[in-house]
Amino acid sequence: MRIFDPHIHMTSRTTDDYERMYAAGVRAIVEPAFWLGQPRTNVGSFLDYFDALLGWEPYRAAQYGIRHHCTLALNPKEANDPRCQGVLDELPRYLLKDGVVAVGEVGYDSVTPEEDRVFEAQLALAEEHGLPVLVHTPHRDKAAGTRRTLDVVKGMDPGKVLVDHLNELTVGMVRDAGCWAGFSIYPDTKMDPDRMVAILKEYGTERMIVNSAADWGRSDVLKTREVGEAMLAAGFTDEDVDRVLWQNPVEFYGQSGRLHLDDVESGGDYEGNTILRGTR
Prior knowledge:
Elements: E1 3-5, H1 15-24, E2 26-32, H2 43-54, H3 56-62, E3 67-72, H4 87-94, E4 100-107, H5 113-129, E5 133-136, H6 142-152, E6 161-164, H7 171-177, E7 180-184, H8 193-203, E8 208-211, H9 223-233, H10 238-253
Parallel strand pairs: 1-2, 2-3, 3-4, 4-5, 5-6, 6-7, 7-8
């Protein structure tokens, strides 16, 4: 079983997790820029973080045979902080980088006017740079937030929009809009493998994206593998599993023209001076 985890925050994880992921079949990942838990108070903090996603984390993943890519954005939760909004001025030079396969996570947290403005500005950047978009749906009042999200992205090519963190209440509207549907599989919250299988039985496997979204909270880097095993137990074929866990994320993020999926060899040197402030 080959696995591409299309949404995982390895900055928050240990190298033990990389070892477990490789053993389970994970060969490629996408790490979206997100809220680190502690509010950032200046633009420079974001730039250091972006540089790490472009340099240090791909190097760390490669030590365990995993290809690392990232998406970059000012995340919805911090879009309301005026100290952080200067990130929008810095993003264009980062979106040119080879390891960036989408703009994200963008979207809504509390659905404020500032989030509206930042969301729309970053959608414009995605179109300008020819990149797909990873959209975060709010954890509170998810159905209303997802409907609002779909209204905002309506003018875009739906094939370049992945609306994430969906559930049984929101998948139908996203499918009707023609966008890619993303599902985060968690131990206690969001979706679980059995619920995910039920959704796949109802809606099929096309444009369906499954991720672990593993981060600094209670989460599990092997939830993608669990979904694949649950699919097989429920009668899905090996091809169905490969479609959901590999082919679909490759198709979506491949629209960036920047996926690197050849095998990597562990070892090598980390050239820290090659990633300074977007110079990589």
